[in-house]
Amino acid sequence: METVEEPGWLTEEEQQAWFALAGVLSWLPDALDAQLQRDAGISHFEYSVMAMLSMSPGRTMRMSEVGALANGALPRLSRTVDRLEKRGWVTRRPDPQDGRSTLAVLTDAGWEKVVATAPGHVAEVRRAVFDPITKTQVRQLADIASRVRRVVHPDGCPPPLPAPATPED
Fold first, then answer.
1. I need a labelling partner for 47 at 20 to 30 A (CA). Which of 53, 110, 114, 151 fits?
2. What is the Cα 92 distance to its own chain's centre?
3. Which pTM value belongs to this model?
């Protein structure tokens, strides 16, 4: 008969930390989504897609890369890009370097939407995440999040974010 090993139960301190993190993982996306819906009429996922495109060279990325960065399955990403296309903010075109791939391109109207939406989004991120913590804790948060991400995605996925683009791009 096989023996089942007991799991390494969390200590009380670890439980408190886990519940705090689980709450952040549940509530922060809702808070960010609510602000963007209220102020810009878009979801957090839609904004994330457009923001990633805005930071890419030529405001263009392969759909698969956008999906990896936004942590969105391709069907969800495709439906989102459909909505963004209908609003004139994103277009799709075949990748000339790989005919099997599709490029997502942020339009000038999409760029204007990101530029108009970003200040309110950044203010909400600052209010919810950075204002309550110290500069030392910001560095600790970055270190902790990076360590956890490396365990969750040991293959290096998602890829690093692109460098921010400027309005002249």
1. 151
2. 20
3. 0.82
